[in-house]
Design brief:
- By secondary structure, the protein is an all-beta fold.
- It is built from three helices and 55 strands.
- The strands form 14 sheets. The protein has a five-stranded mixed sheet, with no helix packed on it. It has a five-stranded mixed sheet with strand order 3-4-5-6-10, with no helix packed on it.
- The longest helix is centred in the N-terminal third of the chain and has 6 residues.
- The chain is elongated, with a radius of gyration of 27 Å.
- The two termini are 34 Å apart.
Length: 723
């Protein structure tokens, strides 16, 4: 293998710009195309995912190590924080401002706005379990910013813009089983006045197959919106058939684009736009409650910030308000938990993707209700909480439910996948960052008060806490050095190698990778371009070596371009060889315990032991994207994450580690982010960094190439065998 081609640094220029072409069908035919599910477990594409994945079909995140559903409530009196995940598949085309209703286990998506700003007429079924999207017909007229509800065996679509605000109620039959021919919507009625930018919620149960009595008991309420001219409409309308309307209350604060949910027969409206003047949009943080029975509405609380275009889901008696856009056209990742019985608003976590003006609906599953955000928009992002695609119309699908790992809402860092301190080797920025669960940067190296070591701090490929969290060891891969740094003092404790001078002589390294401090004080490192594993004493003497420098798989005599040397609890090391795609367990003396060739892996990277015979590893450089896989020493692969498109796709991930709660954290090098993946749903549930955007501002990274976790008490749970 040509070493020039295999070095990670050489990939950056070629990956900096990737042109993705998506064909979007225009209004005449709608905005969706059909797709079908893949049959391979763990495989995914931009339009499909394996059958029976996602939160509705998962065996349950509560089965993961350390996870416990509902733990936030017990003993705290607080609701759970929220867990939100990006599905490992995406829509065939970006869309926002569409209307969505639940139809059994699927979502019916009606109309919306394309990324070019054109109203859509397509009606599509999104099946979250299969990860498929199929067009089932078209509306009578293209529309966006409408609201929808089911009425027996059909859907009513209320108002919207096309682009002018309309008073039309469009009807569309709920798709039947058996793949019926595409349907065409009809004009079923008229609203009392034109109305767009509204929201709808149904109180009571309604839908095809429901008893007649239950269908009659269900009422849909239309809240908010405006007439397309100057009037923000305060009237809350009720309908039980989609064509006849009555006023049940008036909002004290008329709004456009509120988030809407119902609990206990009451309707709650969160935020919204209250007026605009020229290019200035004025928003509110009001929480308004509508009591349809007593025909009154009032303000009952306030969100932490003004917002419009957010999503709201009533899950287990708590309303989770997610995303939206706030002042300054900043799109949010924030999730708030509103407790109707007390009126409290609590921090409940973050979306892994900022989102506003998404289509939203809630599906009832065997594991409880799950909220969905389909598509949406990102105007702009800023601050440490920014995440996901930086700007534009989205093709992603996200789900939201009470968290199995994030603890109770209202505590600092609610919803975070980790406690303690997360260390990130931000290689492209030549720095180390330490984050707390609230995503605040609590430490950065180097800094004006903590200068770099002699020879500079360049190309930090990995970094791990040492000595109970009182220090950090880092290898500077293309600076050919190792360094131990005091934490948090930043004092240089130990160095090895010659900065900027690769070599194989004593005291020299050539592209060192994965340096660990053992409990004995010896440092082990994969000296990659010298094709050897070195064991280096505190005095800087090589006290052990595996590999004679030849680039070939013949352990222990020779090993081919190693990039991993993970210490194991029994004193052995787990070695990954890029040449030939081998993983070996070797004793410090070089005896081969087992050796495995993985023909489906192109570039094994940094294997970790997570069970008695279970290992976790990245495939850094497969064709077009990166993968994560669990494997056994016999070559079985019980799980892999292999999204091949969209925001869920990884690009050259180099390190994956399983957290104590069962989530898998990954540094996704060439998408400029660190993510946490829920293996039970194959979903990204947490992200730090903007996807495909590099930078130094809070919340932004550049080619992060390593991370580590320090828990309270000086515990390093992902590498307990080190010093």
């Amino acid at each position: 293998m040509n070493p020039t081609l295999r070095r990670r640094r050489t990939v950056a220029a070629g990956l900096a710009v990737v042109a993705v072409v998506i064909v979007v069908v225009t209004v005449a035919t709608g905005g969706f195309s059909s797709s079908s599910p893949s049959s391979a477990r763990g495989a995914a594409s931009t339009t499909t995912s394996p059958a029976a994945r996602g939160p509705a079909a998962a065996t349950g995140s509560a089965d993961r190590p350390g996870a416990q559903r509902g733990a936030g409530r017990r003993g705290s009196g607080l609701p759970d924080s929220a867990e939100a995940g990006i599905e490992p598949w995406s829509l065939p085309a970006p869309v926002s401002r569409e209307a969505i209703v639940a139809d059994g286990s699927s979502l019916l998506v009606l109309g919306g706005l394309s990324s070019s700003g054109t109203s859509a007429s397509a009606v599509a079924v999104v099946d979250p379990q299969a990860g498929s999207t199929s067009t089932v017909g078209s509306l009578a007229a293209p529309v966006h910013d409408a609201a929808a509800a089911t009425e027996g065996g059909s859907v009513s679509l209320f108002g919207g813009g096309s682009p002018a605000t309309v008073d039309t109620v469009q009807g569309f039959p709920l798709p039947g089983a058996g793949g019926a021919a595409p349907q065409k919507g009809t004009v079923a009625g008229r609203l009392p006045e034109p109305r767009s930018d509204l929201a709808a919620v149904t109180v009571g149960e309604r839908g095809a197959g429901r008893p007649v009595a239950a269908q009659k008991a269900a009422v849909t309420y239309l809240v908010g919106g405006y007439d397309g001219q100057t009037t923000y409409l305060p009237d809350v309308l009720a309908t039980s058939d989609g064509t006849h309307f009555s006023k049940v209350a008036a909002l004290p604060v008329p709004v456009r684009y509120p988030a809407l949910a119902s609990v206990g027969g009451l309707v709650y409206a969160f935020g919204g736009q209250v007026r605009s003047s020229g290019s200035t949009t004025v928003l509110t943080d009001d929480i308004q409650v509508v009591d349809p029975v007593h025909h009154r509405a009032r303000v009952v609380g306030h969100l932490p910030r003004p917002v419009f275009g957010a999503a709201a889901f009533a899950l287990g008696g708590t309303v989770y308000v997610a995303g939206g856009e706030t002042d300054g056209a900043v799109t949010l990742t924030a999730i708030e938990a509103f407790v109707p019985r007390s009126g409290r608003v609590l921090d409940a976590g973050l979306l892994p993707q900022a989102d506003a003006f998404a289509g939203t609906a809630t599906l009832q599953t065997s594991h409880g209700p799950v909220g969905y955000l389909v598509g949406g928009e990102v105007a702009n992002q800023s601050g440490p909480d920014q995440a996901g695609v930086a700007t534009g119309t989205l093709s992603s699908v996200m789900w939201l439910r009470p968290s199995s790992f994030g603890g109770p809402a209202g505590r600092p860092g609610a919803g975070s996948p980790f406690s303690g301190t997360l260390l990130i080797a931000d290689r492209g920025n030549n720095r180390l960052l330490a984050l707390d669960p609230q995503r605040r940067t609590v430490w950065q190296y180097p800094s004006p008060s903590m200068p770099p070591p002699p020879g500079g701090f360049y190309f930090p490929d990995d970094a791990f806490f040492i000595r109970g969290g009182t220090g950090i060891i880092s290898n500077q891969e293309d600076n050919h050095t190792l360094v131990q740094i005091g934490y948090p003092s930043g004092r240089i404790l130990w160095q090895y190698g010659h900065a900027g001078q690769p070599g194989a002589a004593p005291g020299y390294l050539d592209q060192p990778d994965d340096a660990y401090l053992l409990r004995s004080g010896v440092v082990t490192v994969a000296d990659a371009s010298n094709n050897r594993i070195l064991f280096i004493s505190p005095q800087g003497q090589v006290v052990g070596q595996i590999g004679n420098g030849r680039d070939a798989h013949d352990p222990p005599t020779s090993i081919g371009y190693p990039n991993g040397d993970t210490p194991l609890a029994d004193g052995d090391v787990l070695v990954s060889e890029i040449t030939g795609s081998w993983v070996d367990e070797l004793t410090p003396a070089g005896r081969v315990v087992w050796s495995l060739h993985l023909p489906s892996v192109d570039y094994p990277s940094d294997p970790q032991q997570i069970g008695s015979d279970l290992y976790l590893m990245c495939d850094y450089d497969p064709p077009a994207e990166g993968r994560i896989l669990e494997f056994t020493s016999a070559g079985a692969i019980p799980w892999r994450y292999d999204a091949t498109g969209g925001d869920a796709m990884l690009k050259k991930p180099s390190l994956a580690e399983r957290l104590p709660n069962g989530l898998v954290m990954v540094n996704d090098d060439y998408r400029d982010r660190v993510v946490a993946i829920d293996p039970a749903t194959d979903s990204i549930v947490w992200q730090y960094g903007l996807t495909d955007v590099s930078g130094t501002a809070p919340g932004v990274l550049s080619i992060p190439d390593g991370f580590d976790l320090l828990e309270p008490g000086g515990v390093t749970p992902t590498h307990p065998a080190t010093g």
